[in-house]
Design a protein that fits this description.
alpha/beta; binds adenosine-5'-triphosphate; 687 residues; Rossmann fold; 3'-5' DNA helicase activity; 23 helices; single chain; AAA family ATPase; six-stranded parallel beta sheet; DNA binding
């Protein structure tokens, strides 16, 4: 434990604040819970319950930072304590602890130590002032653990911000992504707090905190726009179920619940609700893509994800709709004619915004009304009216039965046939899901309550412009957070090569584009190695800037037999105290064979496969293409030879992904000839 000169001062403050928290909690717990029907009482009870929850949470780790800010309108600086949830003094209404998302807390993250004047935007206007102290405080299990000053007015040395960040980055992680509220960096803060009404696109190098920032942004948006945004109407799309499990802890840590978290595939299947439809085995698709790629399959996949194909589907849909509603005059009884022009006019103009299904229903209702008016207008005799009504309804039934609405899949099949594209049956590929959803949106429609308030897309470089468009149709405004890294686009046949493709979907004035080039995950040595690989790209890519956290050199070794080497590596890593370790092979079959060999000696090792739903940490073996998004204390990359990793762009990306999964330690093995992507690389020992 670091004992700083400020330690005792903070210990005293902590004791005071804890007493306050305890007594507020006691007071609130003493108020009986209200279960009655009075609305005002219910609102008050909800607010009390929220306070109880905040206080309970704050008991363990009430805050992590202190900022002494002197507003120019005040006579002296006020210490602001910043925590995960805001706590207020019941009597005075003053903040005891400021929520990290509150406007004033922004100063804690944005202040670099060199600005003389700072300001924040409060609801009552701009507040100007200066900062006298910025302090990081670590509290664990209710006890003060560490106090680090990153800025003190009048003192020259103010490197504590970096020191504290390095201390946090050097910690070993468990097997889940964690919140970073105490160390959010200025560039990250700017993205997190960007207004909600634009599509925010983030290109970030591996380990720059994209996923983490997107999750914090959701928590921020829910706080800032609490009147208009609902967690239930927000959604996160992630690449697979295992990744969702890996990130599942961050939002609850930030006090956010009820946000939908899913993959694009599962979500579309839920929307389509076609029990006969299924997805082709993705484990096999991935395997063949990374182990036996086929160029013509790839071309078809890219085409089906393009805006060009989307426009063709749209055009075909318009035609199919016209054919569906192709009508003749409706003769209710002799002399009572509703012309086909009148019907078409209703469909084209009056029902313009309705889906095809709704149009069918609205047409039926409108025609019934027309019959009723006709009957009442021209016939006075009740009996005669009744007979005509009956006859007209019989004819209407017959007339409407000619309008046949086919299923989404049938329409898609017809479009593919029309376009001379290979047919699909009941088993589809992921790339078929965007057109299927497009058809569903037009035919069945999107209910108001199904629209999203905000959408997050992680690993968005693997999304196609077509996918993005169907999601845009489903979203109110343009409120998106889209994050990815083009250098990690290992599924680029389905995805994009440049972010421009997405800017086109939203329009240039509706997008805000950010780049994050600092990598927080890995040591300096690992980033240096990753950058060496990126330099082998035929096109120029942005290199990652390391945070200066030095670790062990990256070793690359030539070996005869992998098995014993892996076991020795696991032992060595265990001795170093690393918790999460990954052995990454190039193919699933190779990993399967190695797993069979290793798990007799290392029963704790788990074999990660494409269909896995959870990630439980420890020692894992997995093919490198499944490692995207994850991170491990130590990584052993196998088969870095010239056949497994050639100079093809997709191999550069794959090796880059593998290398950047390591936090603290990276080692690579090969037999035969070393991949050209690593030749000339100098660090560590090559043997
Ligand atoms: N400001 C920060 N303070 C502390 N840790 C951070 C910060 N930013 C990012 N990290 C850490 O860096 C690691 C990488 O973060 P994250 O997985 O969100 O990055 P990413 O850009 O999505 O990575 P990738 O594209 O490689 O999957 C995580 O361990 C995260 O906790």
């Amino acid at each position: 434990m670091t004992v700083s000169s400020n330690y005792n001062e903070e210990k005293h403050v902590l004791t005071q604040k804890q007493k306050h928290i305890q007594s507020s909690l006691k007071t609130l717990e003493a108020i009986p819970r209200y279960h009655g029907d009075d609305f005002n009482e219910q609102v008050l009870e909800d607010s009390r319950e929220r306070q109880r929850e905040s206080l309970k949470k704050a008991q363990h780790e009430p805050y992590f930072g202190r900022l002494d800010f002197q507003a120019y309108e005040d006579t002296e600086a006020k210490p602001l304590y910043i925590g995960k949830t805001g706590i207020y003094d019941e009597d005075t209404g003053d903040p005891l602890i400021l929520d990290w998302r509150a406007p004033a807390s922004s100063l804690f993250y944005a202040f670099s130590g060199s600005e003389d004047d700072v300001y924040y935007e409060a609801p009552e206007g701009i507040i100007d002032g200066e900062i006298e102290l910025k302090r990081n405080i670590v509290i664990r299990d209710r006890a003060l653990y560490r106090v680090v000053d990153s800025y003190k007015k009048g003192e020259m040395e103010s490197s504590g911000g970096d020191e504290f960040l390095l201390y946090k980055l050097g910690e070993q992680k468990d097997h889940r992504l964690r919140d970073i509220v105490s160390t959010i960096q200025g560039e990250q803060n700017e993205i997190i707090r960007h207004p909600q009404n634009k599509a925010v696109i983030i290109q970030g190098v591996a380990g720059s905190g994209k996923t983490t920032v997107a999750l914090h942004r959701l928590a921020y948006l829910l706080y800032e726009y609490r009147e208009s945004l609902k967690a239930e109407h927000m959604i996160i799309f992630a690449p697979n179920a295992m990744f969702l499990d890996y990130i599942s802890q961050v939002l609850p840590e930030l006090g956010v619940g009820h946000i939908q978290q899913t993959t694009f595939t599962s979500w579309v299947f839920k929307q389509l609700d076609l029990p006969s439809l299924s997805l082709k085995n993705q484990a096999n698709t991935l395997k063949s893509r990374f182990e036996h790629p086929n160029q013509s399959d790839d071309q078809l996949t890219s085409y089906k994800g393009s805006l060009e194909f989307m426009m063709i589907v749209e055009k075909e849909l318009t035609q199919i709709e016209v054919q569906t509603f192709q009508t003749e005059d409706f003769l209710a009884w002799n002399g009572a004619v509703l012309s086909s022009e009148a019907i078409t006019n209703w469909l084209i103009n009056d029902f313009r915004t309705s889906s095809v299904k709704e149009k069918q229903e609205r047409l039926k209702a409108r025609m019934k009304r027309w019959i009723e008016i006709e009957v009442n207008q021209f016939y006075l005799d009740k009996k005669e009216q009744e007979e005509l009504r009956k006859e007209a309804m019989r004819r209407l039934q017959r007339f409407l039965s000619k309008i046949k609405i086919r299923t989404t899949l049938q329409i898609y099949q017809q479009i593919l046939k029309q376009q001379n594209l290979p047919p699909v049956k009941n088993e589809v590929e992921p790339v078929d899901l965007a057109p299927l959803l497009h058809i569903h949106q037009k035919w069945v429609g999107i209910k108001k309550e199904e629209k999203f308030d905000h959408v997050v897309i992680d690993e968005a470089q693997d999304f196609s412009p077509y996918q993005l468009t169907v999601l845009k149709n489903q979203t109110r405004g343009q409120s998106f957070t889209i994050l990815g890294d083009l250098s990690q686009g290992i599924h680029s046949v389905e995805g994009i090569d440049e972010w421009m493709a997405f800017k086109e979907v939203f329009g240039p004035t509706q997008t805000a584009y950010f780049e994050m080039n600092k990598s927080y995950r890995s040591t300096y040595e690992i980033i240096e190695c990753a950058n060496h690989i990126l330099k082998q790209f035929p096109t120029k890519s942005t290199l990652a800037e390391p945070v200066f956290r030095s670790g062990t050199p990256v070793h690359i070794r030539s070996v005869q037999q992998m098995g014993p080497e892996i076991l020795a590596w696991i032992d060595a890593m265990r001795e170093q105290g690393y918790q999460s370790m990954a052995v990454m092979g190039r193919t699933t079959d190779q990993c399967q064979d190695l797993y069979q060999f290793l798990h007799h000696t290392e029963p704790a090792i788990s074999f990660i496969q494409a269909a896995d739903q959870t990630y439980s940490g420890g020692i894992s073996i997995l093919p490198v293409y499944l490692s995207k998004g994850l991170e491990f204390d130590a990584v052993l990359l196998l088969d870095v030879d010239d056949e497994s990793y050639t100079q093809k762009p997709e191999h550069v990306k794959l090796l880059y992904v593998g290398v950047t999964r390591a936090l603290h330690h990276l080692e690579m093995l090969y037999s035969g000839k070393l991949t050209p992507l690593l030749t000339g690389y100098q660090q560590g020992t090559h043997t």
